[in-house]
Structures are given as C-alpha cells and as structure tokens.
Amino acid sequence: MPETEVGKVTHYFASISVAVVKLSGTLKQGDAIRIKGATSDFTQNVGEMQIDHKPVAEAKKGQTIGLKVDEHAREHDSVFKVE
What we know:
Layout: E1 3-13, E2 18-23, E3 27-28, E4 32-36, E5 41-45, E6 49-51, E7 54-55, E8 58-59, E9 64-68, E10 78-82
Antiparallel strand pairs: 1-2, 1-10, 2-9, 3-8, 4-5, 4-10, 6-7, 6-9
C-alpha cells in the first residue's frame, strides 16, 4: 500500500500515550497512519486528535497536533498516511 509522509513526532507523553506531531500534510480522523522510526513501526487509525487541547476532526500542513497513539512513539519518528 502506498504511504505519504504527513508529519514528524516532536514529543511523546508516555503517561497519556499521546504523540505531538508537526504536520507536513493533512490528516483526518479515521485516516490509517503508520508511525515509523529507528525502533518504532506500527499502524493505526487516527482516533482522538487535538490542537491546543481542543478536539479537531482534521488538521492541515504546518499545524501541530496531539495524537492519541496505540504504541510508544519516539521523537523524530515519521508519520505516514496509508493510502
């Protein structure tokens, strides 16, 4: 399946399983994503996503989001949208 890079993880909050992602593309709730790095590699659907602690259904290039993740993400991991 083709993948398009849509962002980079800039921080990870382990206690709440949230990755902070700086977007280089558009991301919507329900999109299938893959988070891949040196030791991370997992796929999930976008569920809860927030900007400034407010839930959003879609985020665009240049925005920074908080994204609830299923597994541990690390700084500098790439976020890909799975087509």
